[in-house]
Amino acid sequence: MLNSEVFIIKRDGKKELFSIDKIKNAVAKAFLSVGSFATQEVITNLLSRVSITNGASVEDIQNQVEIALMSERYYNVAKSYMLYRQKHLEDREVRDKLCFLLDYCEAKNPATGSKFDANANVENKNIATLIGELPKSNFIRLNRRLLTDRLKERYGKELADRYLDLLNHHFIYKNDETSLANYCASITMYPWLINGTMSIGGNSTVPTNLKSFCGGFVNMVFMVSSMLSGACATPEFLMYMNYFVGLEYGDDYYKHVDEVVDLSKRRRTIDKMITDCFEQIVYSINQPTGARNFQAVFWNISYYDRYYFNSLFENFVFPDGSKPDWESLSWLQKRFMKWFNKERTRSILTFPVETMALLTKDGDVLDEEYGDFTSEMYSEGHSFFTYMSDNADSLSSCCRLRNEIQDNGFSYTLGAGGVSTGSKSVLTINLNRCIQYAVKAGLPYLAFLEEVVDLVHKVQLAYNDNLILLQEKGMLPLFDAGYINMKRQYLTIGVNGLVEAAEFMGIEIKDNPDYEKFVQQVLGLIETYNKKYRTKENLFNCEMIPAENVGVKHAKWDREDGYLSPRECYNSYFYIVEDESLNVIDKFRMHGKRYIEHLTGGSALHLNLLEHLSKPQYRQLMRVAAIEGCNYFTFNIPNTVCNECGHIDKRYLKECPTCHSKDVDYLTRVIGYMKRVSNFSESRQKEAALRYYAPVR
Amino acid sequence: MLRYVNYDIVFQEIPGEVTLALNLSNCPNRCPGCHSPYLQNEVGDFLTEEVLSNLLVTYKGGITCICFMGGDVSPCEVQQLAEYLRREAPITLKVGWYSGRPQLPEDFDLQFFDYIKLGPYQQELGALKSRATNQRLYRIFDQKMIDITSCFWKKTAD
Known about the structure:
The complex is a heterodimer of chains A (about 700) and B (about 160). With about 700 residues, chain A is α/β, with parallel strands linked by helices. Chain A contains 25 helices and 23 strands. Chain B has about 160 residues and is of the alpha/beta class. In chain B, strands 3-1-2-4-5-6-7-8 form an 8-stranded mixed β-sheet, with helices on one face. Chain B starts with a strand and ends with a helix.
């Protein structure tokens, strides 16, 4: 059995020359531990049952020793040996956790320190964020077990094994595996308006005036977010606030906002009272949250043009029988945007992520007033998303997620139907690996991909079973109380590495028939399966995931395993992010209808520019978006933050305009929200440095 | 014949417009401190009406202006191409010319242009963004040239 040149693989992955004496010692100790003694002959007999080949792992050798002890009928020795191994396993786990703890404390920022799934919206690391990191590996194990058990039950062991195999070899990636909660939701606030937070386990009664609305809203968002792993969107936030402002100061308050309504020495006007409410809500929600391991909640809101508003809320009735009023809401929307844009020069405020929903017709925005206002806000340096559609049949209420509106009806228990949606869970396909693997193995890549696509749908259904089970046990009050409607939540198939896969296939990443066909084929296949698996209870959509973490991981894993991986992060764009040859219109085109057609869950074009444009220029680009059918976009101009004096400037500057320090940092949009570049994970910082901000010549 | 090296969609050259800028080569001006000296050589492809026609097909809905950057080696050809654009492009599409000459050539026909920039680059005076610049950008209305160079200055002032 022995050969002098046999190498074994240690637990840390290193190779070591095999030593027979180590086994002999371990066996001798095991005998001694039960008060017995192993003679040379006993040991020789045992070793004759053990076969060591080149590359065997320590674990494998120990398994063989266990079996050898039992085969030779030394049962009590075998038991002692097993217990000894288990104890060491536990020690190693604790040691690993300790190492992680120390590494995390040393890491530059929390995103780099995080081992499993960096929380994007954590700015500083401290004991609270560390507490959040430590159990992540256990959550991953638990989630995998829950899912594979369900898969076995539904589809058999083979499929469960195949799932783990694809997961372990990075063909697919389960997003948010470190959390037990379902992913994200756009909620209807109507249940809160008629029941307070009691029905979701809180203790506050219904809001009755502007003050209780503001305080209650913050608490409600915190509660909802603690039961989600991702974002919480409140698309009705301003509409509800407008209702309470109206109760307080009259329905026509917006016509006399300079009126002093505060009898204190401050003599506040209506406008000041309103912006004080904005301040209270926005600053509170941007606070790190104890219940979420110091993560801020991920909060999204929406603005609407007149047509969207009508379509979503024309049947809406407040509990007192009144209806939402467009004119005052429109004033409040604009006031909030202006206030928020200005406030962002005072403080780094990440949330809310805002989306402006605009209806388009014949290549332009239908509501001219809102088209102009949107351009004005962009030209004033405000950073937000615009969602455009020819038909108010879809809405994007999250930082990326697009949904078909299935029912614009109004219900007296649930409020406006159109706003209630979200994603229960995201399971992502690494297209680059799938396609490269298939081609290298001589398989037709679409056939291989089809098997993967089919499997991810089954896995999502298994996830859904588990979620329903949790709901049946009363664990999901957001669903029971009607904040979220289970039937309007999607199971999301994510895609990543699309551009890289096309590059591998030798396709030029420009708007051309080959690339268009490739994109249509791949995303069309997923959509076919989304429809195939769709039932009354289960909706599927497909999104190009933002890939804050996953895109970096996929790029790294693929490179390590010898696949073509041309950049450090697989982005969520249809073009190569560092490609300088594409102009602004080309980029809109490559996120236009021919490319995004099958991306039912959406993807956002982040147009990186070095300088702000003028209002008419932004206005023209909105026409470009409408013509090209690019339904979701934002402009990203890095803002400058001075590390010395704290000045924030909307422009991209090398030097602080106030104190002239050159020690400046930048705020830019990673995924959906603005964040300091120095708080990105290290690999993301590298990507951000490569990112091409088109010089505005 | 005029040659062009590349084109881009730009925002700063013509204020308020989304401009398709064509970089023409073989520039005779040889300004000291030129930011694109590669355009001084006779390089690139011929700029024909067919090239313009293809660019219009690709970009006409998205742009509000087409601007010839350079072409001082043959102003009459620039004028001919501008005339072609006036004839073939949507009437709303504006046409501009960035020239490095101090003045327009004699009998130059303004009716085909909406914007014209004049003046060589002089390092000590700076480009259009500098208040000291010798360069001028004109908006053409009814064949009259209105100096709008100050549009570039407001931006740097804030």
